[in-house]
Amino acid sequence: MSETDADLRIAVLGVGAMGAFHVNALSTRIHGARVTVVNDFFADKAAAIAAEVGARAVADPFDAINADDVDAVLIATPGSAHDEQVNACLDRGIPVLCEKPLTTDIESSYKIVQKEAALGRRLIQVGFMRRFDPEYVALKRLITDGGLGNPLIVHCTHRNPDVPPHFNAEFAVRDSVVHEVDVARFLLDEEITSVRVISGVATSRAPQGVADPLIVVFETESGRIVTDEMFVRTGVAYEVRTEVVGELGSATIGLDQNLQVKGTDGRWGGAITPGFVERFGVAYDVELQRWVDAARRGTVDGPGAWDGYAAVAVCEAGVQAVRTGETVTVQMSVRPGASDDTVAEPEGGITAPDLEGARP
C-alpha cells in the first residue's frame, strides 16, 4: 500500500480500556486509517465497539488477522495471547502494533525476533509509547547532542493512584517497570545487564504480603546506573518523572508544571495528571499516526521486536530479583541480522495529529 492509496484497514484485537482507546483514536484523530474489524474474547463488547465506528466484529482473532479487509493489526489482548497472534501477522506478512509485552516469556520473544529477521522486513512494532512523548523526545535529543555530557545516572519515578489486588511485586515489574526498562534503553542506547529489586516498608494500601513501593536498580553494559521508584498505590495521582544526571548537568521531565495557581486562601499549586491517558495521550496519538503512515508503506516506525524481547528479558530477571532478593544478571541471546531494529527518537518529536478530544 502506498501513501496515496486508500485508508489503512486495521483489525484491533482486544477492546478493553487500552484497545477501546486505540479504536477511538484511529477512528477520530488519526489520518489515513480505518478500523474495519474488531475482535475480543467478550463478543458483546466487540460488537458494541465495532458498531460505534462502523466496523464488523469477528469472533476468532486469527480470522480477523487474515481477513481480506485488513491491511494491518493492532494487538491489545492479554499478553498470553500475543505469541500466537504476532506470529500469525508475520505468517501473513502484514504490519502489527503489539502492546507490551511482546510475549510473556524470553524464548517465545526471541523466536519472534528470529522469525522477523528471516523475513528481511520490519513488521513488528511494540507499544512503548513514551518514545513518542514530546518530553522524552526532547530529553533523548539533549543527551544525543551532548548537552549533558556523558550521562551517568538515570532516576525514574513511576507512581499510580491505585491498582487491582492481584497487582503484586512481580506483576508490577512485568507491567509497570517494563516502561522504565525501555526508557533506559532508549535514552542511553545500550542494554541493561543486571537488575536488583529492593522492598522496604509496604504501604497500608497494599494487600498483606505485597511489597509496594519498590526500588529497582539497573546496571547497563557500560556501567551506568538506573534507579526506578515503583509505587502503584499512592492514593494520589499518576506521576511519571525521569531525571538524567550527566557530567555537564542534569535534566528532568514529568514535573506537571503546566497551570500554576495562587489563591486568596494562601495556597498555590496545580493539578497532577490522574491517569495514563492524560499524561501520555499525545504520545499515544503520535505513536499511532507514525505507525499508520509506516504501515501504509508495508513497514513500521517505532520500537521493534528486539526492543520487545530485551524488555521481556530484563523484566524476567527483575522477577527473579524479587523472588531471591539478589542482583540478577540479564540473559540475552545474540541479536540476529542487521541492527536497524532500534528506532531513534521520533523526528520532529512534538509534532502530533489533530488532538481534539484526545483527552477526557
Shape-level CATH architecture of the largest domain: 2-Layer Sandwich
Shape designation: globular
Total discrete domains: 2
- If you compute it from the alpha carbons, what radius of gyration comes out, rounded to the nearest whole angstrom? 20 Å
Discrete helix count:
9
Strand content: 15-25%
In short:
The protein has helices at 17-28, 43-53, 61-65, 82-92, 106-119, 134-144, 169-188, 276-295, 305-324; strands at residues 8-13, 33-39, 56-57, 72-75, 96-98, 124-126, 151-159, 192-199, 214-220, 225-231, 239-246, 249-253, 261-262, 268-269, 328-329. The chain is an alpha/beta fold and 360 residues long. The strands form three sheets. Strands 12-11-7-10-9-8-15 form a seven-stranded mixed sheet, covered by helices on one side.
Describe this structure in words.
This protein is an alpha/beta fold. The protein is 34% helix and 21% strand. The strands form three sheets. A seven-stranded mixed β-sheet has the order 12-11-7-10-9-8-15, with helices on one face. A six-stranded parallel β-sheet has the order 3-2-1-4-5-6, sandwiched between helices. It has a two-stranded antiparallel ribbon with strand order 13-14. Strand 9 (214-220) and strand 10 form a beta hairpin. Helix 5 runs antiparallel to helix 9 (305-324) and helix 7 packs across helix 9 (305-324).
